[in-house]
Amino acid sequence: MFRSHNVAARIFERQICTPAPGTSIHCARRFYENLVPSCTIYDVECPDHSFRKFTDDGRYLISFSRNHQDLIVYRPTWLSFSCKDENCHDLPLKAKRFESFFTQLYCVPLASSSEVICKDFFLYIESNQFGLFATSTAQIHDAPAVGGAIQGVPSIEKITFHLLRLEDGVILDERVFRNDYVNLAHSMGVFLYDDLLAILSLRYQTIHILQIRDSGNLVDVRAIGAFCREDDELFINSNMHVPMNHVGNGLQHNEPFSDISFLSGIKQRLLSFIFRAIWNEETDETLRIQCLKKKFYYHFQDYVDLIIWKVQFLDRHHLLIKFGSVDGGISRNADHLPAFFAVYNMETTEVIAFFSQNSAELYFLFEQFCDHFHATSKHSLYMNFISSHSNNIHAFEQLRFNKNKASSSSQFVKKMLVSLPFSCQSQSPSPYFDQSLFRFDEKLISATDRHRQSTDHPIKFILRRQPYSLKFKIKPGPENGSTDGRTKKISSFLFHPVLPLALSVQQTLFLQPSVVNIHFRK
Amino acid sequence: MGSMLGDWPSFDPHNFSQLRPSDPLNPSKMTPVTYHPTHDRTIPPPNQVISSESKNIILRHLYQHADEKLRPKRAAFENLTPEQGCKHPRASASDMPPH
């Protein structure tokens, strides 16, 4: 739409020309090509906190104290200073401070002495400006599998989810899970959609659905796992005490429920769906039974042993659930283990679909409709503009390139589907990561907030469109590079969603204080 | 009707009655040519409301797919489900192949 790169010319053009229908936000975002965080304040003196992220509306900067017990929230502002000299090209020293950009709002202790805040966990409820944090006690590996727990998953004595109002730091509600395990790293075990939370208890194989009310209360909606409908437990309990006199081995007393080995809840739904799908494939009786033997009964025990690994919402009623074997539930590198995906309707308690990890049909949906897996609630409209291979031609071309380069199509599909189910709020909405605006090395920096290997070279952001020039560089670490070239360093980047402001945090692995740089537009 | 609008027809002869001809020296007929449809195949249903589909496209695809799978095999499907709906243990599994 813009014929010139000059910002004043663009502003005049904006006054006159109407953008093409439906592209007004895309056109407005092009001004980010002109306003870039090109100025860096290196190694700014700042409190020694662990900076987590900016909230997706840009109102708050979330950080945790070094001892992981307190939450400190800042308000991002902009610097202002006065200068008495005649030519004031460079910033005066007193402006180059952390406090010029951030005002501390409050410091709230969240964890008691035996607990720590999980510094990788944070979910933001934008509509009410609530934040969800998690604290936990130490993990106990090799915990015994009692009380319905499964083997192989560690146990944490107490996990607490805290719901805070971020405006003033008031704790609104808490939810405690005892002797349980929820995958808190990078918020993988919890998914937020609108006002619904899905918390996956790996140890008890239950998906807890909670609702966050406007008043700040966390309300239980349902628990899916051993039971699907809300009254299943009541039904089974009321029939539990029927004496089992007709059982072959002559037991006369009441059998406790847990010893009866019938599959219940979601496992039953899943297995009956798989059975019916195979049954319906063939009309001929003998072929059908052969198919069943080969595809279902041969793998029966494997299907029974599947456990839920990860969950996400597709909409308010549907969940995408990833199943896998017990060994891979908590480990990071479970890619070599078999995995399956199921779509489950919470209202009708039916499984709608079941896919293997290299399913071509699921890959087709992933390739064409990737954005629809990031269930977009009405409050998170900025999600529509985060670049993905379904909404951006450059990202799509990259995907196609990788697909054609892959030696095995089914391996490629499997590798792509590993990212499902998605974790929520893991991508930064900053326009500087928009692939239509800038080109950058995705191995060094990207919209996904993960720690990366740090290099001494600055990371370049180059314009996608004419004149394809280098617009700005982000260099983590000290200005002249670090003196010690051999220590491994990792960097993380926090980009403000709206302002041309970013923080880069470089840490070494020896608990030395991290080097924080502020990148902004002067 | 003349003027800029041309001699386009309308379904109601009383339409465009307020229009004045641009050329007063040549007052062409004020009522437009009237055409009526000879069939009602293209009339929209009386309570039609057009709105966008709120269901997630992935779910739409999966439900459609599930329907397609079930439709031709309807006969087999009906054989499978038991007649009554309440839960009770299966008496025997005689039609299942041995494990």
TrEMBL record, chain A:
Give the superkingdom in one word: Eukaryota
What's one GO BP annotation on this UniProt entry?
positive regulation of proteasomal ubiquitin-dependent protein catabolic process
- Give an example GO cellular component term for this record: nucleus
InterPro entries noted in UniProt? 6-hairpin_glycosidase_sf, De-etiolated_protein_1_Det1
**Gene Ontology molecular-function annotations:** ubiquitin protein ligase binding; ubiquitin-like ligase-substrate adaptor activity
One protein family per Pfam: Det1
Recorded protein name is Light-mediated development protein DET1
UniProtKB/TrEMBL annotation, chain B:
Disordered: annotated segments: 1-49, 76-99
Q: Gene Ontology cellular component? A: Cul4-RING E3 ubiquitin ligase complex
Pfam families named in the record: DDA1 (PF10172)
Task: Output one GO BP term.
Answer: positive regulation of proteasomal ubiquitin-dependent protein catabolic process
Q: Which family does it belong to?
A: Belongs to the DDA1 family.
Stated name of the protein: DET1- and DDB1-associated protein 1 domain-containing protein
InterPro entries per record: DDA1-like, DDA1_dom
